[in-house]
Amino acid sequence: MLKVSDIDPKFKYEVSKVPGAENVLLCFQCGTCTADCPIARFNDFYRPRKLIRMVQLGLKNMLLSNEVIWLCSTCFTCIDHCPQDVGIADTVRVLRNLTAKEGKMPVVYRELASNILKTGYSYIIPELRRKKREKAGLPSLPKTNIESLAKLFDITGLSKILKRVGT
Amino acid sequence: MPKLKYLIFLGCVIPYRISSYEISARKVLDKLGIELIEMPEFNCCGFPLDPINHDMMLALAARNLCLAEQQNLDIVTLCNGCFGVLNHVNKELKEDEKIRKKVNGYLKGIGMKFRGTITVKHLIHVLAEDVGLKKLKDSVQKPLTPLRVAQHTGCHVVRPAKHAGFDDPENPAVLKSLIRVTGAECLNYMDETECCGAPIISVNDKIPLQMAREKLDHIRAVGAQALITICPFCHMMYDLNQPRIERTFNEKFGIPILHYPQLLGLAMGFCPEELALEQLRVDASKILTEVIAQK
After folding, report:
1. What's the predicted TM-score (pTM) here?
2. Per-residue pLDDT tens for B188-212?
3. Taking CB atoms and an 8 Å cutoff, what residues of chain A touch B193?
4. Is B135 contained in some domain?
5. B173: closest CA among B159, B190, B192?
6. What residue ranges of chain A are covered by domains with CATH 1.10.1060.10?
7. How far apart are CA B184 and CA B123, in angstroms?
8. Out of A71, A75, A148, closest to residue B204 by CB
9. Residue numbers in B near A122 (CB within 8 A)
10. Which residue in the set B19, B48, B106 is minimally distant from A133, CB to CB?
11. What is the pLDDT of residue B30?
12. CB contact under 8 A, B52 and A74
């Protein structure tokens, strides 16, 4: 059962101040987003309408410990169809960012971040692949400026977040 | 008309595992007289990190945009994901002073500044708008007339509509007209605009595999001989993962998934090897025999 102490009445303001989630308070729960969501069709727990309601109610802890927030495939159908112009997928992104800030994220994101930090690419491209490119007559892959990327990881605060996760 | 020239933004997935897309795209663009300049020192577009840190996504995308500004060239991407992020961030930084200030604050640390002088395009914008359907039609030497295919435009090239500003996201038509130019018939099918599911496959593989199975099922139902894609993620879902889908659901599809430039390239007279058709996971030789047999 839900207790009053589970509610953080300021949470909706915390969320609606982030670009993309400004209109979260305007949601009137019509359910268009859930009806048109391809993920909701194949999963019994991911319901965008419900996530937005939980934000409005201030169920912060329940949201930030809920694994379903990582199921949005960012097809953006909900954003295009919302009659209230609520950035639903963007709001889910805000919830993910807040969860990550607490040091919680699916392992794949740690890997992607670490690959980008090491090589500039989100995957480690094997030497064999690079050689194959040459054989196929493709230009060699440029090397990025790793120092610049490391700086951006620090400046944006992602380095700190990743330390919290323990990469 | 002055020669069309772009910076090519490859992104990560294409060099990592979908070279056939790059090989075929470079072949057809070259034949159409388009010059591609390699993008120096680029990094991941930023899309994969948006879920964990929106500002890092902005910074990665903005760094790429600044590199293009230094070359004073528009970007062309082959990937819906890269296009979605780079185009959105480019527009947002041009239009929203508050966000631009914040991002320029990040960029200052690496000696860069966003100025807002270039445009981001996807391959299909270049083909449909800059080259134009007429010139494409003129480049067709061997119309693929007997071929019946279906298209999957994917998400980030058309959605969200307010950022993409291209085509009709409810009924995408551009890729269809690009397909018709080749002489092939483009079939309608159920739920054409449905997402491939690829972005969450590393978090939950059950859902995307069901989504992709359904798409293949709908395509088979109308008798399409191949599916045409314009994104490496979508392609991976339907081609690389097709054997896995077949095993998981104990169902045989065998539907070849071609990158659009492979289809166009065949119509332009390139041979299948030049377009890296043998690199596809699902064997395309059956449709190729049909295409070649009609000549």
Report:
1. 0.96
2. 999 999 999 999 999 999 999 999 9
3. 77
4. no
5. B192
6. 4-101
7. 19
8. A71
9. 12, 44, 48
10. B19
11. 98
12. no
Total residues found in chain B within this entry: 295
B21 and B118 inside one domain: yes
Chain A residue with minimum CA distance to B205? A71
Give yes or no for A2 touching B (CB within 8 A).
Answer: no
Query: What CATH number is attached to the domain comprising B57?
Result: 1.20.1050.140
Mutate to test the interface with A, among B43, B87, B91, B108 (most CBs of A within 10 A): B43
Q: Which CATH architecture has domain A4-101?
A: Orthogonal Bundle (1.10)
Residue A130, helix vs strand vs coil: helix
- Is the pLDDT score of B53 beyond 80? yes
Q: Which residue has the tokens 């050689």?
A: A131
Here the ipTM equals: 0.96
| B127 within a domain of the structure (yes/no) | no
Burial of B71 (0-12, 13-18, 19+ CB in 10 A): middle
At residue B83 the predicted structure's pLDDT band, cuts being 50, 70 and 90, is very high
The CATH number assigned to the domain holding B188 equals 3.40.50.11810
Q: Decide if B134 is inside a domain.
A: no
**Do the Cβ atoms of B118 and B73 come closer than 8 Å?**
yes
Residues of chain B contacting A144 with CB distance shorter than 8 Å: 41-43
Q: How many domains in chain B?
A: 2
Q: What part of B 205-244 touches A (C-beta under 8 Å)? A: 206-208, 210-211
Range of the domain at B101: 5-122
| Distance (Å, whole) CA B9 – CA B208 | 26
pLDDT tens-digit series, residues B227-272: 999 999 999 999 999 999 999 999 999 999 999 999 999 999 999 9
User: CA–CA separation, B292 vs B144, rounded Å?
Assistant: 9
Residue B236 within a domain: yes
CA-based nearest residue in chain B for residue A82: B160
